[in-house]
Each structure stands twice: as structure tokens, then as C-alpha cells.
Amino acid sequence: MLDSSARVSAIRITQQVTAGQPLDRAGMEEVRIADTGISYLPWSERTTYAQRLARVTLLPGTLLTRQMTATASEEIMPGRARVGLALKPGQFPAELESGQRVQVIYLPNQDGTDRKSTVLAQSALVETVNEPGPHGSSRLVNVIVDSAVSPQIAAYASNGQIVLAYLPGAH
User: What is the reported pLDDT for 169?
Assistant: First the structure.
């Protein structure tokens, strides 16, 4: 039998965190809740879990559990690949940031017979976004994708035929 008067200290999310984005210590608060046997993350582990990635979109008021978080290294696992893309303005959203989820879309040249765009990766994780270099406005963007499509994405990217579409709230 559970003692409903027993209290534990847990982490509550105070600001929405979109799937794939890092948790932020400033977006967490301590709450005292009844010990129901559910494995909520204890407040004492807040530093450990700050900077982990949200596996799902977390809404304000959510009590955090281990299954709701992931480390970046969990994205890099067998069957996944990191692909570097040199993208020009118009090939990615202006607000693109590390931790966001994007669709990786093949956009064929308009002078050929194949004019159908294709989604190559439904929910790729943006690992890094570099600032434009001094000699151009291209940005290097690293994305984590299924390794089965990484050669295709790399080939299309080298021809300037990749576009990223931001997926707010995707996980």
C-alpha cells in the first residue's frame, strides 16, 4: 500500500521544450509530490538532465521522467549517420537551430524531366548549425539521419538539391 503522505522532490518543466531540443535548467522547477511509485526524476538530478534532449515535446507542468529525455549520443547509434550539408539561404529556415527536427527534402533541378520533390528523412535531428563563413552565405548543417539514406542525402546535397523543412513540435 502506498503512503499518500510520503512526498518526493521531482522536476517539473516550466517552459515548452520541443522534441529534439535541449532541456534547460532555467526551464525546470522543484515540486514536492506524493510518492506514487512512478519514477519521476528527482530534483537532485536536475544538473545531470539539464542539456539532455527532449525525446517528445514537453509542455509546461510536465513531471519529467527518464524516458522523456535522450542524450545526443543516443541519436548516434548503429543504423544512424551524421551528414554534413553546405546549404545556402533558401535551402533551410532562417530560424534553424541545433536540436530541432527537420524533414530532409530532395528538390530536383527544374531543367530535368524529374520534377517531383521527395522527403528523404521524415524527422532528422539538427546536430549543429554553423554561422556563414567570411566568403559566402552558405552554412554547414550537420543532421542525424538513417544510415540507409545518408549516401543519397550526401549526393543530392553536393549538387545543391537538398532543402530542410523545420518541424515544430515533431519528435
Answer: 66
